[in-house]
């Protein structure tokens, strides 16, 4: 054997030894513990979910080009359009009729034409108006049709249009010009020349149909903080109905309990020493009321939630699947989050689940506060759902989705990462039992939930919109309110309308009412409304006839008509209320889904109010109506600026039609009264400020469907619970080494304002 052969054998021997060492070093480990495991293959829809998909930026651009070339009128880009111009206000997807969609999804029918809904403001016409067009087919439009009369029964008057950003810019310029007429007053009251004051709108804008006069509240503005807590006591009423900006005027001025015809009159009263002035120092950034800047350096990091083997859900386009759930998601730029075609184990439960409106109604002894009834859909609940902060607004490792919209511009905009999807471990059992009698065992299941979340910032308030899907077949819908309270200048008997939260700041009482549409299809489209509640019957004891017992019994009722199924606020509602299918489960009960509401809503407005019909959905904690294509939403963006003649009045939906074995819709109101307290500074916390509802299977299944969960845990006293093969919880320690590779933190939410 020569030297060369020996060297070759030595090299081979060393390689063999090295390989054996590697095997021995890795032996006993579970190499798949940290290996990404894609979620089990869910049923595929072959792109069917795109029938509900929000428009892409490319589709929006094509719609704009089509309108510019085919309407025969000059269109001005809305971001610079005057009221006397024509402009494109918004472009959104036109969801096809339900019958068309179901023929496509369930019956093998043709895919419905993809269309857009375009809203245009026609100010440059003899009869200025708002017109809505359906434009299609996409991606290359060939036609448009005016659907305004079909939808609303007539033309939509021009004064009902939402206020555009350009209109606010022109109003602010007018206010600043007027402020210059009272320089000595401003220097004395506010240490200001007026240019550094923030201006906040109120709504609605007058007292009767056709009015467009708005109170604006002025605040000290300090960079990096919320100005909403620093009112200076000055409010102005601006008349801006005329189509010509040059004719707008400041109609009235309010300061510290007194009203004046103009800023000049206010200045004269100050100079003549006829005005009680509260001198407010200009706040400094480090000590301003409501600053959110951290007061201490960061501490040790808190718990981190992550998926050791990657997400167990799958997002494909506008559809997410998770452990039997399938949900199509989207965002309306006005009304906010909308879900479609919600299925569990392949069966559709909900055709549409969508936010409709958010009302904030205030009280105060200042004109701006006392007249405010914000209908946030007219401002843009979806449009103002900005980028979410990774690791705070949602888990760091959540899936983040961009949302596109075209509003007040001819160019689409994108709110990056503005919707998040994640699996949430609630640190709570979904179910569990410890058996300490007869046989000894433990069984349980973690409460892991799929969450779809968006957060809208509507001026001062931030609303967290959650849609949660549980392994038990339950759907949970919840909204949390946070952000800054709105405030008024504290004067006179201000505390009749809230609490003092700063030197000159009144935290004004207000109520939040949120409205949802839930188009349930429980084992088919045709459902009935069943109620159950408890009563007592006095009976003689069968085993002791001389005694009696109060025996609970179940009162069951099927509601026949819409009037019976409209439950006013603050009136008793059956504790069990279910959409029931004619079909039964294994035990002979109708397959049903129960609606369970968690809310503390009070009276939205007295029905005697001339603007109550515009928010008449707020009369009811729950109303069930026949589904109609001509009743797609409970409100309209045009209701805000003309609540006295509402474009859509929900009360008209309830006309006592039969609701037995029909396609039904549940309209759900949730809300709460908020009386601000000192602890609402700097921000309202989410704790206790949340309301919502559940959709819960009620005899829909033959047993709790979560029994099929692969996450189930069971072990008995006769087993070694520390063995991975016996108890999946014993397999968790190795996953401690599976800390995820977190992407670098990035936030671009300020870039698209």
From TrEMBL:
UniProt similarity note: Belongs to the copper/topaquinone oxidase family.
Post-translational note: Topaquinone (TPQ) is generated by copper-dependent autoxidation of a specific tyrosyl residue.
Organism: Chordeiles acutipennis (Lesser nighthawk)
Pfam families: Cu_amine_oxid, Cu_amine_oxidN2, Cu_amine_oxidN3
Stated name of the protein: Amine oxidase
EC class (word): oxidoreductase
Domain Copper amine oxidase N3-terminal: 161-257
UniProt GO BP: amine metabolic process
InterPro entries: Cu_Am_ox_TPQ-bd (IPR049948), Cu_amine_oxidase (IPR000269), Cu_amine_oxidase_C (IPR015798), Cu_amine_oxidase_C_sf (IPR036460), Cu_amine_oxidase_N-reg (IPR016182), Cu_amine_oxidase_N2 (IPR015800), Cu_amine_oxidase_N3 (IPR015802)
List of residues that carry 2',4',5'-topaquinone: 461
